[in-house]
């Protein structure tokens, strides 16, 4: 059997300009290939030479968390300092932040991060593999990322 790894992630957005600004500021992604086709706009976002996200301006409303489909996107960083840098930007731009900042993934876990939303309500996580264990877990008996 073949070995699989995640490639890029494609997201439908309502306002490409707003989403580009958000993902560039929070994640530091660079834009390559913003285009328009038959009135529809789209863009490719990279981290270095790696395609990370494609954004497609072709939706309306807010992300529907009560419907089947995507639960959240999670991005790992090297350490808790990088999580805290992202948290500062999230707070600065006024994005919805859950759990009021950095929390562990669960009771007794050393890994943890921030849980927040993009401009369309898509749930996101930035985490580090350790360093968050001294904080209280917001959810008892279940993974923090499961219920936000």
State the secondary-structure class: alpha/beta
Query: What is the distance, rounded to the nearest whole angstrom, between the alpha carbons of the first and last residues?
Result: 35 Å
Give the helix level as a range of percent.
10-25%
Question: What is the level 1 CATH name of the largest domain?
Answer: Alpha Beta
CATH topology of the largest domain: 2,3-Dihydroxybiphenyl 1,2-Dioxygenase, domain 1
Tally of DSSP β-strands = 8
- The count of helical stretches stands at 2
By CATH, the superfamily of the largest domain comes out as 2,3-Dihydroxybiphenyl 1,2-Dioxygenase, domain 1
Q: What oligomeric state best describes the polypeptide chains here?
A: single chain
Which CATH architecture of the largest domain is right?
Answer: Roll
Major pleated sheet = 4 strands, mixed
In N-to-C order, the SSE pattern is EHEEEEHEEE
Number of domains: 2
**Which shape, going by the Cα principal axes?**
globular
**Regions with pLDDT < 50 over 5+ consecutive residues?**
none
